[in-house]
Amino acid sequence: MAGRSSVALVTGAGSGIGRATACMLAANGTKVGVLGRTRLELEEVAAEISAQGGEALVLEADVSEEIPMRKAVDALVSAFGGLDIIVANAGINGVWAPIDDLQPFEWDETIAVNLRGTFLTLHTTVPHLKQNGGAIVVVSSINGTRTFTTPGATAYTATKAAQVAMVQQLALELARHQIRVNAVCPGEIDTSISENTSLRREEETAIPVEWPVGQVPITGGEPGRSEDVAEVIRFLVSDEARHITGSPIWVDGGQGLLR
Ligand code: NAD
Q1: Would residue 58 count as lying in a domain?
Q2: Is 45 a member of any domain?
Q3: In principle, which of 35, 191, 209, 234 could form an S-S bond with 16, CB 3.0–4.6 Å?
Q4: Most distant CA pair in the chain: distance in Å?
Q5: Which of ligand 1's atoms lies nearest the C-alpha of 229?
């Protein structure tokens, strides 16, 4: 590790899991680049981090766009002198619809944010991690890894499965650079992501399964909290996880095992 405070980039840091992760890493003394599309939200997160005595840099960029991502990563490295930890978290549910109804531009949007966005996040940051080693966590999902019953979520599920494939491929490619690459796969977490979901013709795609006591066994059906995921990410990027790479960790209260 470098002889300076560690530096992290968290994408989608303006809300939910990204916000909780950025705050938690900052509370541990890590300097954090908080990246997202909505400046106002990011400024709130940066203010919260400063109020806790931490340091954050607001980076407004769309993860699916190459030039803004390059500029954001350059700005972070210039401000804090390097980069050690990457949390590729930004993502959308997108449109959930029957495959013959899902429009090609809707498919492209989900792939652009979730998959191209993950690629660009790693593509632009890995050269910096190669300097001193580091840790990457990609926020995948139970969808595409354990769960295939979410109505119409084919595009989303495809991106989340692909993220875990990337993690495993890159764990081997980057081990020689002392870079660990892992995934967290959350179940239902109480964030604003469902507000940004468009679900069409659910009656054609729903799988008729109902769990009378709810679908998150460990909480009696209640969704998890962003902090439940952030704490696992904090562990995965810490030295305590030094022998873990290429591993998906499900943070779902057992939800993904119901089938
Ligand atoms: P959220 O909507 O609160 O957070 C997502 C963040 O990503 C938002 O701040 C949003 O502005 C940002 N974002 C979206 N598109 C972006 C883009 N193109 N460029 C930059 N930033 C962008 O939702 P969340 O639940 O915290 O989601 C975080 C991650 O967790 C996602 O990858 C999601 O797929 C995954 N996840 C969430 C759940 C859940 O139940 N909430 C379950 C499994 C996986």
Answers
A1: yes
A2: yes
A3: 191
A4: 57
A5: 30
